């Protein structure tokens, strides 16, 4: 039994090692294609944001429709290229995550829902009158690993890190790490569920402050 467990551990270690090269690649390629198509459609199309600008979550609802259209178009186009190359991956993945949450809140989220059962009816791709946030939710779930783990070794980010000879200490999930993670999750979630998002972000800030105080 012990030999079997040892062999299984060796296998999983090798899969983990190769996974650092290939695991994020599929996410990057698929997301790059989807956001490139979306950005290209906006680049070639007419600005229809004026019709839904009032539905954008704060503070994006305050921006002019032309500016929102410009930012959405170029963040999708440039973000797609960045994900394809694995360059500035965490920045662009987080930016596209926020953009996805804004799109979900303004277009795909149910206009009214009183219970989780009502909300669950919007988990669809076809618009059946209850929202259709399934696809953007899948995109958000695919972007999160790139935000937290980066582009992987098969990327320009990894090449740049090697050239600069930067070393990142593999710290445990301490208070500061949890604080940063909760803040990263809380900001985009607040665009859909303000109460939940603000609690997560606020807890993250408290943990970051506590961690800084402990390390001081």
Determine the number of helices (DSSP H or I, runs of at least 4 residues): 8
Cα Rg: 20 Å
The global form is globular
Query: Helices and strands: which structural class?
Result: mainly alpha
The description of the largest β-sheet is: none
As for the number of domains, it is: 2
Total beta-strand segments: 0
Order of helices and strands: HHHHHHHH
Strand content: under 5%
Distance between the amino and carboxyl termini: 48 Å
Give the helix level as a range of percent. over 70%
Stretches with pLDDT under 50, minimum 5 residues: none
pLDDT averaged residue by residue: 86
Helix-strand layout with pairing:
Layout: H1 2-44, H2 65-85, H3 89-108, H4 116-120, H5 134-149, H6 156-164, H7 175-190, H8 194-215
Helix pairs in contact: 1-2, 1-5, 2-3, 3-5, 3-7, 7-8
Structural features:
216 residues, mainly alpha, 2 domains, 8 helices, 0% strand, globular
In short:
By secondary structure, the chain is mainly alpha-helical. It contains 8 helices and no strands.
Descriptive report:
This protein is mainly alpha-helical and 216 residues long. It folds into two domains: 13-166, no CATH class; 169-216. It has eight helices and no strands. α3 (89-108) runs parallel beside α7. The radius of gyration is 20 Å and the shape is globular. The model has no long low-confidence stretch (mean pLDDT 86).
């Amino acid at each position: 039994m012990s030999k079997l467990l040892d062999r299984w551990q060796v296998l999983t270690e090798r899969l983990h090692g190769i996974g650092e090269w290939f695991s994020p690649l599929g996410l990057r390629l698929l997301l790059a294609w989807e956001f490139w198509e979306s950005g290209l459609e906006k680049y070639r199309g007419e600005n229809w944001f004026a019709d839904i600008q009032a539905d954008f979550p704060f503070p994006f609802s305050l921006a002019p429709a032309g500016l929102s259209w410009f930012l959405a178009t170029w963040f999708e186009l440039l973000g797609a290229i960045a994900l394809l190359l694995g360059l500035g991956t965490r920045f662009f993945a987080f930016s596209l995550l926020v953009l996805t949450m804004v799109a979900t809140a303004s277009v795909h989220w149910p206009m009214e829902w009183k219970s989780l059962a009502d909300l669950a009816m919007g988990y669809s791709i076809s618009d059946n009158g209850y929202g259709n946030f399934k696809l953007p939710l899948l995109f958000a779930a695919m972007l999160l690993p790139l935000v937290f783990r980066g582009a992987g070794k098969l990327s320009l980010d990894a090449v740049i890190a090697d050239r600069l000879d930067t070393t990142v200490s593999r710290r445990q999930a301490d208070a500061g790490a949890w604080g940063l993670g909760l803040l990263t999750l809380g900001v985009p979630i607040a665009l859909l569920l303000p109460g939940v998002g603000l609690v997560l972000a606020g807890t993250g800030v408290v943990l970051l402050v506590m961690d800084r105080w402990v390390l001081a």
